[in-house]
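Treating backbone geometry as a discrete language has practical consequences that deserve illustration. In the encoding step, the backbone of a single protein was reduced to a row of integers, each denoting a local shape. The amino acid sequence and the backbone structure tokens for this protein are reproduced below.
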Amino acid sequence: MRGGSMEETLAGVSRSFFLTLRLLPEPMRGPASLGYLLARTSDTLADTADAPVALRLSCLDAFRVALAGQGAVPDWPSAMTDAIADPRERRLMEQTGALFDWLDRMSSAEARLVREVAEVITGGQALDLERFATADAAHPVALAGAAALEDYAWRVAGCVGVFWTKLGCLVSGGRFSSASEEVLLRRGAAYGAGLQLVNILRDLPRDLAQGRCYLPARDPRDTDELLRLHAAWSGKAMDGVREGFAYARSLRSRRIRVATVLPAMIAAETLERMRGAGMETLRARVKVPRRRVWLALVRAWAGAWRVPAGLADARV
């Protein structure tokens, strides 16, 4: 990681994932941290609701062009930056140039992986923004079907599991895992997508308040249908989280193993807390307390991993 200022920025915008990144050995930590910061930059562009959709799409396009090495580092218009309410996110946007400088200093192989994952995520966020361009709380829009949700989960998170695998194999070679790269790529993609499904399930009411329904509901105003879909997709999410546990068990480095399994442990507990929840409980936003996160970290170091029973009995 390049300097204290960038580390402070990372801590400000990454919340619990900052802990995961700090667990990684240095050869993986730098590229993974930069990949995360670039993804958060595009996420900020996409989610700044006070900026017009056309402006956000234009900024995302400029960002993708720069990531592909086909254009200059974006100079964000004031209409974009002034619309960002969170000072931590504004600080991140101010450091866009520093992020690209960091990218340019990386080895070509590492930089290629970072650019690849950031481009896929940014493309997914642009698609998401176009899909919900006219949506609001009174006129919610739902994804068209299971395939659309699975595609979205791949674009914004499944690709991260692939990036994690390729980066680990690049910097560690055969010392990365006892499993083959082919198996890891499959498990990593499923794991990343599973984590994204957990986020979607947890944030369902908050997204609906913005007119966004990521669950493929025929009628996103039908609470009973939404809760049935929530229960069904919880099973799909747990399938992905289970792949994360299997992925982590194969890793040879203890630090990488702990960093990899910790999100799975938190996601599994989140799913357990949401099990059978009604809309009022979901509106309160189910969250794993900080003390439980630290307990999960201790258990991860001790190798005491447990997948809560009975969470995968529903299927899509």
In short: The mean pLDDT is 91. The chain has two domains: 1-112, 132-316. Residues 132-316 form a domain with the Farnesyl Diphosphate Synthase fold (CATH 1.10.600.10).
